[in-house]
Specification:
The structure holds two protein chains of two kinds. By secondary structure, chain A is α/β, with parallel strands linked by helices. Chain A has helices spanning 45-53, 75-85, 101-113, 119-128, 144-156, 174-189, 201-204; strands at 2-13, 19-30, 34-38, 60-65, 68-69, 86-89, 162-166, 193-197, 209-214, 217-220. Chain A contains seven helices and ten strands. The radius of gyration of chain A is 17 Å and the shape is globular. Chain B is an alpha+beta fold. Chain B is elongated, with a radius of gyration of 30 Å. The chains are: A alpha/beta, B alpha+beta. The structure holds adenosine-5'-triphosphate and magnesium ion (MG).
Chain lengths: 221, 399
Amino acid sequence: MELCRMEKVSKIYAMGEEVRPLNNISLNIEVGDFLSVQGPSGMGKSTLLYVMSGLLKPSEGDVFIKDINIRNIPDDEITDLRKKNIGFIFQETNLFQALTVEENLRFVLAVGQGKNIDQSKIDYYIQELGLAQRRNFLPNQLSVGQRRRLVAARALINDAPLILADEPTNDLDDGWAGRVMELLTDKVQEGGAVVMVTHNSYWAEKAGKHYTMQEGSLVLC
Amino acid sequence: MWFLAWKNVSRRIGQTTLTVLITALTVLTFVLSFSVLSTLQEGLRLANARLGADVIVLPGKSNADVFQTIFTAEPVNIYMDKSVTETLSAVVGVEFITPQFFTQSLDESCCSIGGATRLVGYDEETDFILKPWLNEQNIKGLRDDEVIIGGGIPAMLGNRAVILGGIFTVVGSLYPTGSGMDETIFMNIDVARKLAQESPYLQSIWKKQTPEELISALLIKVDNGFSPEEVARNINELDLTVVAVSTSEIVSSMKSQMDVISRLILGLWSGVFVVACLALIGRFTALARERKKEIGLLRAVGVQRSAVFKLIVLEAWIMAGSGGILGSLLGVLGVKAILDILTSSMVLPMGEWSGLAALVSVLLGIAVALLLGLLASVYPAWKSARMDPQEAIVRGELD
Ligand SMILES: Nc1ncnc2c1ncn2[C@@H]1O[C@H](COP(=O)(O)OP(=O)(O)OP(=O)(O)O)[C@@H](O)[C@H]1O
Ligand SMILES: [Mg+2]
């Protein structure tokens, strides 16, 4: 089953000097896919994920989420599609600053599932990612690695089928990086898909398909 | 959403306090000016409705006496010959005319009122001022040892009062009128004259004429078909060394003065409101910019634009609402004090400052606060809601 498809997508940033990080990219992501995307810094890897998630409009080409072309649908519907289908692990460890670790997860879960929150899910990810001792801490009281883990938990907690992971193992020691990778692998095995951007060749190896980003194009290795 | 809004507000305590303070002060100034102005307006309305007389005639002096006579209870020891009554009852347009005799109690004297109080002797035969009230209370007339007190004097029915050495029983207290009547003690005219005659402190006044021959004021009700202004003019044209003024004229001149002041105060307050609005727009815009990443994140996890908009307005409302409640409550506490200062330092008719008025002020104050919050947050909320999520997340606070 197809989760996301890009057809001849280009992205041009036109603020000041023109930058074209994505150039005529076509890509198809199906259930069971685990893609890794590598490439030099500033090449457009993050841009690729933003375009896939509908958070950024492509300059040319079409993006389909679950077979729906998001070019001409209202923003509300794109938001809804994203909510149901995509979990995003951002490269930045951005969190809701006024909410504790647990509240950050609960809020996102509530956005996804409405009032009836499944507390066991929150407990599961807090446990799995070693945040149990920090449950009631605010984000600014966490270490960078703890924040990164929380960002990963947040992306996974809504059971979205497609996870877009931008450098999910950054700031983490091998132990915790491995744990995050396991969770991503689980996702693929449970009938989802993962697109992972990384600089780390070791973790990139764990993916099923390997891409490199070069001059705006994705090259399969 | 409520949860996030509440946490955002309560966990940014410094930011929140400042916003709450700005709103509270704005609302405080609003509640104070609104309550004071409305109490004054109410006082005027009451004074107009309940003064009872259309025209008041006083011994010929300046107009200041008229104000003082009507709107305060300060003793005014002014007198004219009682024959004026006869003369004036013949004036065209005068339907009823009744004399009053003013004197004063002394500092130590009556009830719980501090200072000297005006005593008014009224003429039972011709009176039409107290009559409606007396009829209502089924009181035929006052005995010589009985008094009626104004609505503003705290005393119980049946209380004894010692006035200038005489012992009196309080048989009733009038409705509040917002005028000097509220703090006046009424008694039979002859009793008042006798008290005045015997009071050792007032002897110097009785050199030329004794109280029996004197009156202090004449109250006139005009015939249907005549305007009070007309009748007052007729009387003044007689050249009797008395002044006649129509009460509605006084009230309306007072009202127009007050309207100017009201407009001035409301104008100044609007200025305060605009300044507060601008300050809060600045604050909320800065806050929204500071939180750009978070707002981008909201959009990324599936929160709609409209919900982002609501979140920011809601946060503004929580802060402004608390400010409103705080400001209103402080205002209500402060109003009493301000009204007291005003009454004691100025000649003004005052309405009652009641629980209902307090409630209205609080509700209006909160409404003002919410309006302020809305006005100040709409623009930042709208901007945040239509922000491009990727830019918001990646580029953060840079505009
Ligand atoms: N909002 C934007 N406006 C203008 N240019 C942008 C914007 N966002 C990204 N860029 C530019 O697009 C290019 C690709 O950025 P992107 O973040 O996708 O790179 P990346 O491959 O993820 O880099 P890194 O590995 O360092 O994270 C960069 O040159 C960047 O300067
Ligand atoms: Mg990147």
